[in-house]
Amino acid sequence: MTELLSIDCSVSIEIHLILLVQATVSMDESMGIQLLTLWFVLLIFLQTLPGGSNFFMSVVGLVATLLVFALPFVIITIFTRQFTEG
Questions:
Q1: 36: which residues sit within 8 A by CB, 6+ positions away?
Q2: What is the pTM of this model?
Q3: Alpha carbon 5 to chain centroid distance?
């Protein structure tokens, strides 16, 4: 019961963060927003991934983990480029 509550709270916090970020940037930064949303979706997927899953889910989990570590650098680069250009 405690694990379910913590997952619900973290999902709620992540959704609020997504909405906050979407409200503070214009529509021109849609690529960055989409990547940021993908990053949060991957984090939620990794939190809810069952432990004793099959080979396919293990491969998907590995790809998701790699993306979770790589996407922040891409997102920071995109936002930095957009904010310095104008």
A1: 18, 21, 75
A2: 0.60
A3: 20
Cβ neighbours for 21, distance < 8 A, ≥ 6 positions apart: 33, 36
Number of Cβ within 10 Å of residue 33's Cβ equals: 19
How far apart (Å, rounded) are the C-alpha atoms in residues 50 and 38?
Answer: 20
Buried b (16+ CB within 10 A) or exposed e, 61-70: beebeebbee
DSSP state of 27: G
pLDDT digits (tens, 9 = 90+) for 19-53: 555 555 555 568 888 888 999 999 998 898 887 76
Question: Token match 């989409």: residue?
Answer: 34
